[in-house]
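Lecture notes, unit on protein representations.

Consider one protein chain, 175 amino acids long.
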Amino acid sequence: MQNNEERIEKIIKHHLPRWNELPEIDLYLDQVVNYLEKYLGILGSNDDDKIITKTMINNYVKQGIMPAPEKKKYGKTHIAYLMVICILKQVYSIGDIGKLISETTRYFELSKAYNRFCANLEISIKNVFVRKEFPHIDRMTEEQYLLKNVVQAVADKLYVETKFLSEVKEKEETK
């Protein structure tokens, strides 16, 4: 188990894979779960919590939140959807996530929307932990400002859980 300062440092430096870094070959469901755990585990609120399971993925497909796999295989599009869903579900309902994804992909093609999401989330996480404001808010379009606020909510929750709640938990355990 890592101490809180080490975890914070890892969170601040964490890199989410961009569209061109996602696997070129399609993956089976087990491989997708492992891939997502590898990149998103650090952003989870609890070491014991699963960020994603096969059942969750099947439910997202059934609910129409993401496209169905092709011949039981998941490509870049699926993985990008799942990365976003897994991150946002820490703050938003699945229904709201579906609406946010749908609205965002109306304005931007999926690869650009995904890359922008990852970049903005990394900036928001770093900024919230080092107490810095998000740059150039005054020059953002309404769509960019919406995305900034969506990821800011995730970063703020991660900060509270990592910085405050984990310290409270540690103090309680040492009593």
